[in-house]
């Protein structure tokens, strides 16, 4: 099935056609963010999370130049093996399509594809934002969040970023950040950051109601829902701060810049935490997917009541 030039794989297409809740999932975290073989475990747990929530998962990607909602098993395997798979942000979509390449989509490109396919809920680990060393390096995720009316579930922005600056940019762009069962911005690997949020919600139904109110105003922005990484895997602030400081120094001395920065820093943090950041990453990806599933179901239930 083709929706606005997006290929939707059959099981996702039939879910959409029958009005079932669908959750979009990004693929860059699999092909660039996490190492092999744990990226396979991440994919499995993201899918399981959405399904536990009661919804249907769909990875977004560009497959041989075709923007796609949902990956068939052989395609997912290719992305997990990551041979020749590009990191694709929203700005890179057109070139990846025209050059018929495989592209793993970051948050920004995933929002673009999911939005075109009519999916309203998306889950990831952490969004991109304003970088610490070079504040002019601001992830395309922020601009895309400002123009895509979807619910985006995450554990905050990645710890490698300038979190106060990222939160300020979201405010300027008019993107509401809602703390799910928390009053402050989680730090991706850590549960707290000391950065207070304007809005808190304690149930998927409350989130659905806020999202609907924003839609009714005709506003184009996404709503960012943040939740803490699970107790069992969250890391202490001090460990993460030290790991990030080291990672930034390594990036500087290796001359890393541009799209390579985020994957490089995530890998350096992984080494500096003796792999503990990996368990945190896998745990929060699953939890975020599960919450997204419950929100998608709550939105669907509301829609069914209204129609
Ligand atoms: N969160 C993770 N791992 C990742 C990313 C997020 O736990 O790999 C990816 C997302 O796809 C996000 C991207 O959109 O990093 C941001 O990259 P950049 O800073 O280059 O915009
Ligand atoms: Mn960048």
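^ structure tokens above, recovered residues below v
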């Amino acid at each position: 099935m083709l929706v606005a030039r997006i290929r939707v794989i059959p099981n996702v297409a039939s879910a959409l056609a029958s009005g079932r809740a669908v959750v979009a999932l990004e693929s860059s975290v699999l092909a660039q963010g996490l190492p092999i073989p744990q990226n396979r475990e991440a994919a499995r747990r993201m899918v399981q999370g959405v399904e536990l929530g009661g919804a249907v998962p769909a990875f977004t990607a560009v497959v041989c130049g075709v923007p796609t909602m949902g990956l068939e098993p052989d395609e997912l395997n290719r992305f997990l093996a990551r041979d020749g798979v590009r990191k694709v942000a929203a700005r890179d979509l057109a070139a990846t399509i025209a050059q018929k390449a495989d592209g793993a989509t970051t948050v920004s490109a995933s929002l673009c594809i999911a939005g075109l396919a009519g999916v309203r809920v998306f889950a990831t680990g952490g969004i991109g934002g304003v970088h610490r060393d070079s504040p002019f390096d601001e992830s395309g995720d922020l601009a895309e969040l400002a123009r895509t009316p979807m619910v985006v579930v995450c554990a905050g922005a990645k710890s490698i970023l300038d979190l106060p600056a990222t939160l300020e940019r979201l405010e300027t762009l008019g993107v509401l950040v809602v703390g799910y069962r928390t009053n402050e911005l989680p730090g991706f690997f850590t549960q707290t950051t000391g950065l207070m949020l304007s809005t808190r919600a304690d149930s998927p139904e409350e989130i659905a109601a806020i999202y609907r109110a924003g839609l009714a105003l005709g506003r184009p922005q996404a709503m960012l829902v943040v939740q803490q990484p699970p107790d069992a895997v969250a890391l202490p602030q001090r460990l993460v701060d030290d790991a990030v400081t080291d990672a930034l120094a390594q990036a500087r001395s290796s001359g890393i810049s541009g799209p390579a920065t985020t994957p490089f820093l995530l890998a350096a943090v992984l080494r500096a935490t003796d792999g503990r950041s990996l368990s945190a990453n896998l745990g929060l990806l699953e939890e975020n997917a599960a919450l997204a599933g419950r929100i998608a179901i709550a939105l669907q239930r509301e829609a069914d009541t209204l129609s």
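Residues 137, 139, 259 surround manganese (II) ion (ligand 2) (CB under 6 Å).
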